[in-house]
Protein 1
Amino acid sequence: MLDLQALTQAVGDLDEPTVLELVKNFMATHPGGEEAQQVVTACQKGMGIVGNLFEKNEYFVGDLIFAGEILTQTIDLLRPALAGAASQKVGTIIIGTVQGDLHDIGKNIFAGMAEAASFEVVDLGIDVKPEAFVEKIKEVKPQIVGLSGVLTLSLDSMRNIVNELTNAGLRERVKVIIGGNPVSEAACQQIGADAFTTNAAEGVKICQRWVK
Ligand code: B12
């Protein structure tokens, strides 16, 4: 197993060569999905360091972009380990990053893991308006709707989306899970979602329980 603390620090330091070398060496050991998920969590902590340094004005928007690129490459390397054996679809999830929010790294990780767990995933992308969710739910009839957002303001968008689902008479037909850094038990209740998580692997487990 690779040194997870060293990986977290390397992500926080934006040390791209070290991050990629650590992850390539890790993948050469043919790791299992659980181990790969621990590596994702270590990277997520590293992104937390990046965010803190951004708040302290030690990093700038260009550094956030670079951090995003490093993490995207890392997830691409990890994908074979995160993916499970292909099997029959167990359910459908519509997912999107909510209106006003352009962050998609966490959404993409969750979408990838859900696909690996044999869910059909319909990804609406970023900055997704409530109407777009409503239209796609009518068309695809998923069991689950996943809302992703990293900005604090995204919690308002999530609430708007759940309200629109209620207005369209769709709320009782789907389970709603919210994910991303600012979600919490309190936010989940205010938004009217069924579950929340800041961990993609846990999110997949919740969805699996719902379709059993
Ligand atoms: C990378 C980054 C960017 C990149 C995003 C690139 C991309 N393609 O996503 C770019 C440069 C575009 C960016 C832009 C901005 N950013 Co930014 N960004 C970040 C940073 C450093 C990392 C985010 C990230 O990818 N984290 C890692 C992922 C893996 O974590 P995650 O998203 O939480 O996802 C995990 C779980 O939550 C879960 N999950 C996520 N979604 C879902 C959904 C479901 C359904 C489920 C089940 C689970 C799940 O699974 C994932 C894996 O476990 C954060 C700092 C931080 N601590 O998060 C700031 C941060 C989010 N950004 C911030 C800001 C301020 C901005 C800008 C306003 C900066 C600016 N001045 O322009 C813009 C906003 C643009 C917009 N309208 O969205 C602030 C937000 C402050 C706030 N409280 O609202 C943060 C917190 C930095 C900070 N500390 O100030 N950013």
Protein 2
Amino acid sequence: MTLFRLDSSIRLEGSISRAVADTSEAAWRAEHPTGEVIRRDLGVAPLPSDAWATAAFAGWTPVDQQTAAQRDAVALSAQLGDELLAADSYLFGVPLYNWGISQHMKTWIDLVIADPRFGAGSETPLAGRSGLLVIARGGAYGEGTPKFGWDHSTAYLTRVIGEVWGLDLRIVEAELTLADIVPAMSDLKPLAAEFLATAHAAAATHGRTFGEQAAAMASV
Ligand SMILES: Cc1cc2nc3c(=O)[nH]c(=O)nc-3n(C[C@H](O)[C@H](O)[C@H](O)COP(=O)(O)O)c2cc1C
């Protein structure tokens, strides 16, 4: 059993998305003590932001005419594709930044899509596999809140990872994560704590479940 785990928080200390993903990974690990984890940490080691454009056009250039930079970008894109294809369960930790996804996350997605196995014409390359998307948001974005509709990240991620790549994707959301550090949000601390506890519990459940799903698929 192999778990692919991607983190994208730009902080290591106090990261909620990492902590909730840790909970899910621990639940998966309990089910699969000898399982392998493939890690990609975009917060610690961002991908070069110009690699996507280079890889995208390299596809139009005959291999023997490609520059060294094009070959490197294509190799990076293929490596990212390999990492995804080598797994049977998936865990993504993604904070909301500036009402959308970070440039780090977008570069990763664009480079994966530059791999022909994931790009236009490919058919849901991860179909039938299960994954969990852990979202961390400083504020609240639910219906009735002033910023309802301002999260431009979650729908995009679900579209690409769930629909285009075909993962059976579950979502766990931790909201109001800034309540502990922003004085103006201090009244919201109890609600934030409630959201966080719910997120950890759901992450543990999903970690166990997608482990079970992968095991069932492997035994077919
Ligand atoms: C540069 C930056 C931009 C952010 N933009 C938003 C935002 O647009 N909306 C929001 O609700 N929270 C925003 N936040 C707060 C993060 O979403 C929140 O702190 C989240 O918990 C970060 O994930 P982490 O805890 O895994 O690091 C931002 C944080 C940073 C550092």
Protein 3
Amino acid sequence: MAPHPTPVTSDENLPTQTNVVIIGGGIIGVTTALELAERGIAVTLLEKGIIAGEQSSRNWGWVRQMGRDPSEIPLIVKSTELWKGLSKRIGADVKYQQCGITYLLNDDKQIAHYSHWSKHHATPGGIISQIIGQEKINQLFPHNTARWKAGLYTADDGRAEPQLAAPAIAEAARQHGARIFTNCAVRGIEKAAGRISGVVTEKGIIECDTVLLAGGAWSRHFCARLGRALPQLTTISSVLRTKPLEGPEITASGDDYTFRKRADGGYTITPDVYSYSQITPAHFRHFLDFLPLALKNHRKVRLSFGKRFFDELKYAFNTDLDAISPFEQVRIFDPAPIGWMLDRALKNLKRDFPVFGPLEVVERWAGCIDVTPDEVPIIDAVQSLPGFHIATGFSGHGFGIGPAAGKLAADIITSDSPCVDPTPFRLGRFKYSRF
Ligand SMILES: Cc1cc2nc3c(=O)[nH]c(=O)nc-3n(C[C@H](O)[C@H](O)[C@H](O)COP(=O)(O)OP(=O)(O)OC[C@H]3O[C@@H](n4cnc5c(N)ncnc54)[C@H](O)[C@@H]3O)c2cc1C
């Protein structure tokens, strides 16, 4: 059963004209809509299913600075600042809390990696992350009975509630004048004189000169319909939530599990070793760009071959803007969770933290994560198609970075001075996938 984000009703009467169309009502689409609407720009957000129906309600809810790719540090530091003021800014509580996050570590290579990261990237970037020993771990986790060689601890890191956040931001964007339409898939774009002139939706055409594609795991399929190859693959990750229980407030990952306290008093728990990826035609197309990542993560990702290959092959032949698109055929992608991985994570958690012994599972679900070759998002204007912009590929950590990513996307769209250096997020950085 999938989680239920707060329902957001759709506006009525699709406009025939607007300034900016945003494709996708996940955390990236809604934060960009809020930023643009606050700047007085006419913006229309179109979502094929419901607001936050996919990754943005299914994630763990971690707002994490630590362990980030060095190129993302300025963006996540900015995002942490924005999360702190978000509930006040939007007039709704997204339950953001700086509860601290700890990676509990036994692997010497990981300890060396995070020691280096904390000294050479976190501290110069303004993040206070420290390597801690067993004594500090025992202070932070009096409930733990395991021995750890070390931990990476960031007191300023935190959590928010995914099922509340994106819907609340969408409502705030609407209060500032954005129009929000759900159950409204975008099939493609229209061009005039070589630039964007509109979008074709299942409910009609909207004229506009600017489009932002924030389509999560669907962005690659949207680009393919424009004849463009976006280097993006997907993996499936499973999650469970429990009934309320007295236990640690601090968020952590340990030996094949992660946990974080939820605002409803329960826990969100996940495995932390593998994710699954079904082979698709894109695995072949983008093989060379993804090869270094595949070599780095070959122990962490399990590949399988199945129906998804043929589903995606069919998408490639469906390019008629008058026909029902894949975005209407799959309103909400709801993959099945992998039960044995969740059972094992829960067992390991209870072994290390006896306080979790009585936990009762309420719900299990999975989400499809979109990944780029360097696991860093793409936030950029497409030079070869004036008016078209992309913010996607958040590679399993876009919830925390979402508010700043939306701000940066809005800065690029409005040609305002960017809130951080956008260079690491350029589309043109991939060697073999020319867009
Ligand atoms: C299990 C799991 C755990 C995660 N844990 C964390 C975490 O703890 N912390 C963290 O920071 N990140 C986490 N992430 C990653 C994070 O959730 C994502 O990076 C982030 O939500 C991506 O947001 P998005 O808006 O790009 O995509 P999405 O939330 O997937 O939204 C994209 C939307 O676009 C819509 N769409 C697509 N194509 C069209 C179209 N043609 N027309 C109209 N609508 C369209 C889709 O229906 C979808 O609703 C996790 C992800 C998963 C799945």
Protein 4
Amino acid sequence: MINFEPLADVVNNGKNFLITTHVNPDADAIGSEIALYFILKSLQKKINIVNYSSTPYYLQFLDPDNAIQQFNPEKHESLFSEVDVIIHVDLNRCSRTVKMEPYIKGSKALKIIIDHHEDPEDFHDHLIADTSYSSTGHIIYDFLEKTKITPISPDIAIPIYAAIMTDTGSFKYDRTTPRVHRIAAHLLEIGVNPTDVYRQIYDESKFTKYKLLGRGLESMTLFNDGNLAVMTIYQKDLAECDALETDTDGFINFCMGVEKVVVGLFFLELEDGFKASLRSKGNYSVHKLAALFGGGGHRNASGIRIRNHKMYEFKDKIIEETIIMINKGYDEVQN
Ligand SMILES: [Mn+2]
């Protein structure tokens, strides 16, 4: 059980807040930022939200005030000395803020992490974290419920619902507990329209995404007797389909839909390196696998991002280590 008192103290006593999250933010990252923004706004605090990445088009509806700014060193440098609190949501490693990292680490502001990933880095003053939570949005909900610091308005309920819905894979992953459904029910009572939130995130995609998905599905390959599925997208595919990195969000799930597959790997070539998304079922821990290559995340969902190296230098090695992990059997820690 998380002790929310330190966070309540900071929220009550802080005056000038900076909120940020990880590179390529998902709906849990953006939803948690916006929920916090409306909480702090209701308490008349000064708030800036600054992210390294721009907000994906299908998440912009979560930011009705257009509060999120994209990081620009010239514009934001002074902010890091002006604010008295920096809150990092859905973030376990400061390097996941990319070029913001030196500014964050150099700032004298009080640093808070609100997160549910494994192995948080020690760069914080207060860690509000628990890996058993479905999402960071879920932690923020509990914070509100426990402390009653402000009522849960629809403005706060919508981004929290989006965070929980997406991080549970629309209420199907294994942290979809009765409690998660009770929270969702409460958020619906407050006024969240679940059809509308789902549609805006998943059913308003650009056609280019589906052209690119075709390339991804075509590339899918099975290894190790069919229990490992690998999908790959190259820069060439992005260019030819006129698609963006964010269009690949969710492609990994198609690897997990294949019978017998227990681990899925999605490789995306980037302009300055590559990223790999790792997913697993049950007790197979892709978090440990990702950690071998400097990545991290959760037991069943992790990521690796490597800059200044070509994808081919690492891809075979990552597949090799995945097969070793699968053949070793279940994660020894879980048994
Ligand atoms: Mn999350």
